[in-house]
Design a protein that fits this description.
Elements lengths: L2 H33 L3 H42 L5 H25 L4 H8 L1 H23 L1 H4 L3
Helix pairs in contact: 1-2, 1-5, 2-3, 2-4, 3-5
The structure holds protoporphyrin IX containing FE.
């Protein structure tokens, strides 16, 4: 494996850990804690968190998209060309890509700064578990894609 390939994989995993960690931290700790506050304090805390986190969310999504697409287009597609297993790889990638788009939507709207994000955060009881599920699907399929030849060798 080339050095650039290793570096891109490390960056992809690091960004995935940041996005996934933040989602589950919000779901398990931040949202339940904020729900115990009165309305005014909760809004103040949400706005403070969103203001600080939104730029990071956008950065992480761009990094995930860039490293993921590079990995797919520059490395995996040429390596799988002509192989019988290519169809299955592409199907799994397609499902992962849809899950990732859904996760990107949820992560972005939940961290929209100010009043724009309030209506999404008010429905965080749906959107945070949804985000956690989409990220879990992305991680499981990412792991399978990376070990594709080993897992589907028979
Ligand atoms: C929420 C966002 C994402 C998460 C949590 C995530 C997670 C992961 C994980 C954990 C791996 C396994 C890494 C390894 O063991 O080397 C992986 C691999 C991969 N990811 Fe992502 N990923 C995300 C977004 C994306 C995006 C946006 C793309 C492409 C557009 C993408 C394309 C890929 C590809 C192609 C692989 C496997 C590469 C191979 O076959 O070796 N990922 N991902």
């Amino acid at each position: 494996m080339q050095n650039a390939e290793v570096l891109i994989r490390i960056v992809h995993i690091f960004a995935a850990v940041m996005v996934g960690g933040a989602a589950f931290y919000q779901l398990i700790a931040v949202r339940p804690a904020l729900l115990e506050l009165d309305e005014a304090s909760r809004q103040k805390a949400w706005h403070g968190i969103a203001r600080r986190w939104f730029g990071m969310v956008i950065t992480l999504l761009v990094v995930l998209l860039a490293t993921g697409l590079y990995n797919f287009i520059a490395i995996r597609v040429p390596a799988l060309r002509g192989k019988p297993s290519a169809g299955l790889y592409h199907a799994l990638f397609g499902v992962k890509f849809l899950a990732v788009l859904a996760a990107f939507h949820a992560a972005t709207v939940l961290s929209l700064p100010g009043a724009r994000g309030d209506r999404w955060r008010a429905r965080g009881g749906f959107w945070l578990p949804f985000l956690g599920l989409m990220i879990t699907i992305a991680i499981v399929l990412g792991g399978l894609l990376t070990r594709f030849e080993t897992v589907f060798s028979n």
